[in-house]
User: Fold these one by one.
Assistant:
Number 1:
Amino acid sequence: MVVMYGDHYGITENHNEAMAEVIGKEITSFEYAKLQKVPVFIHVPGVDGGIVHKVGGQVDVRPTLLHLLGIDTKNHLEMGSDLLTEKHREVVPFRNGNFISPEYTQIEETCYFTITGEIAEADACKPFANQAKNELEMSDNIVYKDLLRFYKPEGFVPINRNDYSYVKKDVSFKEERNGPGIQK
């Protein structure tokens, strides 16, 4: 299996003038958010491919790949969801609280229709904004409060850190600096 995934914010705001020339319109905050789309390419030998247009984020890559590999993840803790299933959650929160979904996009407290870019009623974005806020809070809690240390699924065997060393042993400074077998 081969997977290629781009990086977010490949086009920074200092390129707005040039991008306006390329796409033929002013780069508003909404247009800038649309420019942050990142493709993911997945090639699975022996599987007929196709193009899937879904709203997703980096957190969705792992569950998608595990399902393609036939690994059951129903008991896994996941922030994302399989991009190839009907149940995929298509709301992508940005770190600053903005979000994109297939129906609505919220940028700087303004609610837009995702397809047209026209301004929508603020209430239309509230459920998606709440979902995005909750997902960001969960992610922050996991990271900043180190909550994974409490996750011990059935059959889990913790590693012994003493079994692993990331420092080379029994290598003299001369060998390390000059390479093995090279003495100066």
Note: Helices lie at 16-23, 29-34, 61-68, 122-144, 173-178.
Number 2:
Amino acid sequence: MAKLTKKQKEAFSKYDPAKQYSLSEAAEIVKNINSANFDASVDIDVRLGVDPRKADQMVRGVVALPHGTGKEVKVLVLCTPDKEEEAKAAGADYVGLDDYIQKIEGGWTDIDVIITMPTVMAKVGRLGRVLGPRGLMPNPKAGTVTLDVAKAVTDVKGGKIDFKVDKFGIIHTSIGKASFSPEKIADNANEVIQTISRLKPASAKGTYFKSIGISSTQSPGVKVDKNSISGL
């Protein structure tokens, strides 16, 4: 086993890594053991009893975090000229079409979310090989391919995130910052968990929530007792 650093030893002295904690306790521990000298991201990892290779067991969804993500989200809207003003008014950082498609084809991806319209998806679809691997491809299920681009921008800026299960059956997503209060971290985590619960595929057999953990960028993970979460 790798030798623990001084910071890791200090973190492990504040809680028991083998123990499962209630969501509110876990949120407090993550805040206490965060040793980063910057406002670290707080993440949740949910391991599900699904087989993501089967189309009917793919779990993906959208959730509006009650307290937002705590990070400034850079939004690009690829739209027709008649929608440009409303996208800008809603707070989009970049708005356009052909010029930005060219920039992306040239390798530019300095954005967090791309929102577009069904009518221009044929053009945007060409960018799949650049955007796909970076998780930036707009998707109707995530609400990022829509005629109401202004609402989509407002939602994303307000803390709406999308998530999907990876090939190992794990959903990993950011739920805030270490500067958040434990209550806000727990609220955001609970919102994600409840949304995942509602998305349980009918074909998923056995235990749906196998494990839940939260951590910050440089801290070890804290296990969450799923029995402490109402409705699971």
Note: The chain has a mean pLDDT of 93.
Number 3:
Amino acid sequence: MSTKRAGRRMLVLLLGLCLIAGMLSGCGSGGVKLDPKNPTTVRIWNYYTGAIANAFDDMVSEFNTTVGAERGIIVESSSLGSIPELENAVKASINKEVGSETLPSIFASYADVALLAEKAELLVNLDNYLTKEDQDEYIASFIDEGRIGLKGELRIFPIAKSTEMFMLNKTDWAPFANECGFTLDDLATTKGLVEVAKRYYEWTDAQTPDVANDGKAFYGRDSIANMMILRAKEYGHPMFIVDGVNATLDLDRETMKSIWDNYYVSFISGYYAAYGRYRSDDVKIGRSLAYIGSTSSASYFPTEIVADDGSTHNVEVAVLPIPYVEGKEKHLIQQGAGMVVTKTNDKEEYASVEFLKWFTNTQNNIVFSSASAYIPVKKEAANYDNIKKQLEKNEQTMSPIADETLRAALVEMSESTLYANKPFDGGVEARDVLDESLAKWATTDREAVVALIESGTSHADAVAQFANDEHFDAWLAELEAQLTAALA
């Protein structure tokens, strides 16, 4: 065989191998060509509101007028108002309910709802569009969370994540802490938090000696479900043991009792509280000093407190790690919806992924994160020094609260284990149970304790009527029954 013929055969072989490799690795373009004169429209459903919605819309506008215009992609984004509203719309579309809309090209989704779409075979396999090298640029746990495919395929594209932090009204904390001898270090553990909250209740009660038992709550908790899931994981007994799309319960009594004692008993005692829709609302009206909430909610922490008498005063915030269980490994909730791409046609799917790639490139993801207090998803971007350098280059600044929240969250992420509950059938319903069950018992029984105190029962005796093993076992039995029904 001549050298020339051998060379031609080798070239054909190499081209064939490249073609096969492209099909297997799934570059995704598959020869798709977009036309700037006849652009492909990508529709997105999200749940963003307020500053986060503004930040996302600004990014969409920038894409449409730059890269989108050059490549022939137009992105149309719609906020459905809230996570429940978005999830209800998605579920209605999946089930083809009367009056429901066709699913958009992309929708924001947590894993449990995305699993419903995956089981209906409606989601694009993102492994066909992101090479291993592409995926390695992202924080590994963010990619792993998106592998909800029934065979482990990547179905959720991480675009921005969040975790939880402890947010404190540092201004009004100071006089209490100085007088009672506390420091911020006393808030590092769950046990320390209870001790501080109890003392704060007693200290504020003493401010009005002529009125008994009118102490104020120190702390509140957004997402009771997150708190329970995290504590159970730290105790080595995750509540849901997931196998494929099925889950079984592990409601270890000691673990659940620790959750009950820390939250429920403190709540009915008046040390913890929940008044408004979100715990930042309670801080704003001076009914508590601190709360645990999502990093993405940082922009809602008040800079001004409005007291019951109508007076106002400015406050500063301290962003701290969430208290951990002493002696246990520190875990952080990994949360924040990703984006799923629905099966439509080659052009629309390709255009959808191109937008998501653009959105999560380091520069753009930092811009969005700095405006929203979400955490960037790429390793290079999720670095505080890199964030500051990029913003200086862009001549942009972060709000003080967003700056402090991102800095503190990135430090905690490096020192803790990120944890996201795997999705399973009934997961949405099970999470609803966790969010409502303990909170309902705590709120109802707190009202009963207050009524007993007003009728002349001592604070200690009123609390003791509910903070006992018999009452705990009744709650645990009800919780188990409700979770079992959700999983069924």
Note: Residues 1-28 have pLDDT under 50 and may be disordered.
